[in-house]
């Protein structure tokens, strides 16, 4: 499997989008013509978080940061297979 398999990324992001929807959030899956898929999470009618999923040595990881962040900060990632991935992202995004 390639480190950036778009179909695998799509599957993980779609599942996360559905989980976030269950928590009452609005999400939008963006499939750009070139580049990797992105899950946008809206709070109060505006996009607040863009989530991507990347392959690491031990599995897939969701990575996010607020749209206004200039640098990546530790703690803005969660394993894609984690049962509470949506809860972790909501907590971090609304903090």
Task: Please describe what this structure looks like.
There is one protein chain. The chain has 95 residues and is of the alpha+beta class. It is 28% helix and 35% strand. It is built from two helices and five strands. The protein has helices at residues 6-22, 85-94, and strands at residues 26-30, 38-43, 46-56, 59-66, 77-79. Strands 1-2-3-4-5 form a five-stranded antiparallel beta sheet, covered by helices on one side. Helix 1 (6-22) packs across helix 2. The chain starts with 5 loop residues before the first helix and ends with a helix. The mean pLDDT is 84.
Characteristics of this structure?
single chain; alpha+beta; 2 helices; 95 residues; 28% helix; five-stranded antiparallel beta sheet
Oligomer: single chain
SSE series: HEEEEEH
What number is the mean pLDDT? 84
- What would you call the shape? globular
Q: In percent, how helical is the residue content? A: 25-40%
Q: Biggest sheet: strands side by side, in what order?
A: 1-2-3-4-5
Taken as a percent bin, the fraction of beta residues is 25-35%
- By DSSP (H or I, 4+ residues per run), the number of helices equals 2
Unreliable residue runs: none
Determine the N-to-C terminus distance.
35 Å
> What is the number of strand segments?
5
Main beta-sheet strand count, sense and barrel state: 5 strands, antiparallel
Radius of gyration, in Å, reads 12 Å
Report the structural category.
alpha+beta
Short description:
With 95 residues, the chain is of the alpha+beta class.
Detail the topology: elements first, then pairings.
Blueprint lengths: L5 H17 L3 E5 L7 E6 L2 E11 L2 E8 L10 E3 L5 H10 L1
